[in-house]
Amino acid sequence: MRQEGVQETVAMLHTVPALAASLTELAKEARPGAKVLNFVDESLLQDTIAAGDPPPHVLRRLIAYATYAKESGAGVLLVTCSSIGEAAERARPYAELPVLRIDEPMAEEAVRTGVRIGVLATLASTLGPTTRVVERAAARQGPAREVVPYLCEGAFEALRGGDPARHDALVLDGFGKLAAQVDVVVLAQASMARIVGDAPAGAVPVLSSPRSGVAQLAHMTA
């Protein structure tokens, strides 16, 4: 329950520093008046990329961040990195507050939108978790769905190397190839949302995680 005179606090855990500002603005829209607490830890993503999947110490540190969030007065922790989304799910039984992953609402929307669902990613470590979260959403909703994964080779490296234009070009090229095969395209990483406005007019629907993922904060009690 909310307490009169006590400011609500929501926490977010990021692995891409550049996303913190834009997601904070979305959090303020979703939960007006709430204090937004941001944790930024690039090493969680770096270690996951190196291992191929979140290694055990990433799970332990994620649980620690949930503890920090709780101790700081937060009522919820939103994990904004899809690569560690499955670790966020595994952390839930050990956390004293709800732990959300940013891409679950997007997955639910995708299976409501089409029968053939394309998953577009720039990281192999994200492609698998996002594909699986869409497949689980499809299983919950009943009718058969086909999930088609597509990895944009070289795009993530271009973005890390300071060449966002090449990143966007590679993502758009991958999108064009994938869109020809599916009813809806899911962008696996929040950092890919920038390309939505550049998608060709009349193409299949494109779903990204930031807005729908952060909107979950509106429904959490503090």
UniProtKB/TrEMBL annotation:
It holds the Pfam family Asp_Glu_race. This is Aspartate/glutamate racemase family protein. It comes from Nonomuraea salmonea. The lineage of its organism: Bacteria, Bacillati, Actinomycetota, Actinomycetes, Streptosporangiales.
